[in-house]
Amino acid sequence: MATTGPRCARAAIPPHRASEFWDARLGVNLCFAVKRMHDPLEWAAFVADDLGLTDVQFTFDLLDPWAPSSERTRVAHRVRAAADGNGLTLHNAVVGLAHYVPGGLLDPDPDVRRAAATWWRRAVDVAADLGVRAGGGPLGSMTARQATDPQRTAERWEDLVAATTSIADYAVQSGIGTFLIEPTPIHREVPSTIAECQRLLADMAARGAAGAGILLDTSTSRSTGRRRRSVIGHRRLDRRSKQCAWTNTDRRSDPHWGWPHEYGTVEVPELLADLQRAGLIDVPMMLEVFPRFEDDDEAVRTVMRATVDHCQAALAAAGAPGVSTAPAARPAPHR
Description:
Layout (H helix, E strand, L loop, with lengths): L25 E4 L10 H12 L3 E5 L9 H17 L3 E6 L2 H4 L9 H21 L3 E4 L12 H24 L4 E4 L12 H13 L5 E6 H4 L19 E6 L21 H11 L6 E3 L9 H21 L18
Helix pairs in contact: 1-2, 2-4, 4-5, 5-6
């Protein structure tokens, strides 16, 4: 996870627009803690004391929705207590690496799709136990062969609309409020384009779904190449865009680097300008840095601190209220 100095920033936010821009705070996805900080008290203290953040996005990689309900509920309550005890707000809960891998709601096998729908309901239950306001993530993947078959693609679409409508309704009934759908840049996964985002939300709304929204990802919108427009910069998704995941990438893959990074191509000032042009002035902004499992623990902590400092400095330069341009004072590193 090599880092280097900041790259040349482009498209900075005009100072006279700063006061109308930032209504949201910077938070962090707990993917950095997977296989590293299993104890909620450990990651909660690190986020609060070392990173100086208050908003947290929980990952289902840290609490498997398939776990028996009694144990799962007790763990969720301990997570909530750790967050509360460190002054943190659990904002939402999302898919991590584990559930991103299967075919999920787009699998060719109907039994697998039914199992995926059950998993999502259990994930909503976890989110409710955590007391968060939203939950979601990527929905699944077709096979390479299915993705080139118009009839199979149409069938999977209808199945997906029915499943996501049911899940969104269950989320509302459970008190979550919003089922977050995350587009990806892979054509086998749905949605993977702006048009698919719009169509899926419209088809769900036609079936009466009221609790669906889009989870934007900077690595997704910036690695799709010239043929696809940035989801973040597209105004027609504004009202349904409920969150933005910030991650650095080389635009060729999905490495989830932090900032600064010698191969990273996502410039934070440019990202802020994209968000401003799209009118996304109040969506939660969650840092999503996923280190390699083999990376040294202290190196990961250092990257996370550097990423927060880098992004907070960009926010301060953009006029975000209450954000300092100086790196936060931090306690001695954990050993």
